[in-house]
TrEMBL record:
Keywords: NADP, Oxidoreductase
Official protein name in the record: Enoyl reductase (ER) domain-containing protein
Pfam families: ADH_N, ADH_zinc_N
Record domain Enoyl reductase (ER): where: 83-396
Superkingdom in the source lineage: Eukaryota
Length: 400
């Protein structure tokens, strides 16, 4: 069967779409949908048979790829065994999947690098399939649309979020249609990709987890990091007195530029004591903690009555189990946030993503992209991120 189908495709490949009768087109579309023939798709075949955007009877739409064909295989980072950054391996022959119902295929231009990618790679956050492709955000062009997709078409410029095993560290990614954001005309692919996870996380923290009020005092740990910088900017724009925590003097300067009125070097100073001194003993209304193990206890200790401890990251390690009775001091409230549960519906995603992209284009959120790596150097990006050698946002440029 496999050989027979292959031979039939080779006979058809020189023909243009207009030369094929209805039965032939039906046979071709049915074959394309089969798993075995999907691996045989060649650039020659798609160039000849789908030189224009065509909607097949099986429901998916292929674009002219802006005159580029969808290849049979692609480059992608794959993880076959969890562990250190060395487990990120570049594969050059990963099959390109076609979109299924309510999904689109995006040709990536950029993928963002986030701490959660290291959690997937290390096994802290298990991924069900192996090998898998990491990466939770990207931006590019829609090149194919699956059945039952409304509002998206080939050629659209989009940013998106996703999850392994079909991550964004790849030339092509199949993305659910409810996790796509239209890129504003004035924004480029890199900025759009960089806005997704960290930008939307920051927006959710400051407007949903604990909505910052004018006059609040808040503490932001890792205030020079990719997400922390954005949290500080949004909190300051809302009228809060923002206290930042940073690990080095260089990062302290980045935090001040992001809107922190005071910055504490938590490796040299007692974090809780300094916060209480700055607030004249009142404490803070909220702590936005992306560091985890190294700052969690101090964050709890400097909350005011009914304060909010918002934990959103594990940069220094996972927070150990602790006695819930500790929350009774000042009747403080604890939340461990996950972006995905703020955007579980298409409407929630559209609301949060549109507000985030508007804040970037309007200048309220100022991105700081400090590291650009090739797709093949993803492991270097992970090493730099985990080594706490970076500020701002790290990006992977995907070959197109």
């Amino acid at each position: 069967m496999y050989t027979s189908c292959k031979n039939n495709f080779e006979k058809l490949s020189p023909l243009r779409n207009s030369d094929l009768d209805t039965c032939s087109r039906l046979r071709m579309l049915a074959a394309i949908r089969s798993k075995s023939i999907k691996l045989l798709l060649s650039q020659r075949l798609l160039n000849s048979c789908f030189s224009r955007t065509a909607t097949g009877l099986h429901g998916f739409t292929l674009s002219a790829m802006t005159t580029r064909a969808i290849p049979a295989t692609m480059q992608a980072i794959q993880v076959s065994e969890v562990g250190g950054a060395e487990k990120l391996l570049l594969a050059r022959d990963v099959p390109v999947a076609l979109p299924t119902p309510r999904t689109v295929l995006v040709r990536n231009h950029f993928a963002g690098v986030n701490f959660i990618d290291t959690y997937h790679r290390s096994g802290l956050y298990p991924v069900s399939l192996s090998p898998f492709t990491p990466g939770v955000e990207g931006a590019g062009i829609v090149v194919a649309v699956g059945p039952d997709v409304a509002g998206w078409k080939p050629g659209d410029r989009v940013a998106y979020i996703t999850r392994p095993p079909t991550g964004s560290y790849a030339q092509y990614t199949v993305v659910p249609d409810g996790k796509l954001a239209r890129i504003p005309p004035e924004m480029d692919f890199e900025a759009a990709a960089a806005s997704m996870i960290q930008g939307m996380t920051a927006m959710s923290l400051v407007t949903l987890a604990y909505p910052v009020q004018k006059g609040d005092a808040v503490l932001v740990t890792a205030a020079a990091g990719g997400t922390g910088r954005l949290v500080a900017q949004l909190a300051a724009a809302a009228g809060a007195h923002v206290i930042g925590a940073a690990s080095t003097r260089e990062k302290a300067e980045v935090a001040r530029e992001a809107g922190c009125s005071d910055v504490i070097l938590y490796g040299e100073q007692d974090l809780a004591s300094e916060v209480m001194r700055i607030t004249e003993g009142r404490g803070v209304a909220a702590v936005y903690d992306g560091v985890g193990r190294a700052t969690f206890d101090a964050g709890l200790a400097c909350l005011q009555k009914l304060g909010f401890m918002i934990s959103f990251g594990n940069a220094s390690g996972k927070v150990p189990d602790f006695d819930i009775l500790r929350l009774s001091r000042n009747n403080v409230r604890l939340m461990r946030t996950a972006l995905w549960d703020f955007i579980s519906t298409p409407e929630e995603f559209e609301s949060l993503s549109s507000r985030t992209l508007a804040a970037v284009t309007g200048g309220t959120l100022k991105l700081l992209i400090t590291g650009r790596y090739s797709l093949a150097d993803a492991l270097v990006a992970h090493q730099d991120l985990e080594g706490r050698r970076t500020t701002g946002k790290l990006m992977l440029q995907v070959p197109v």
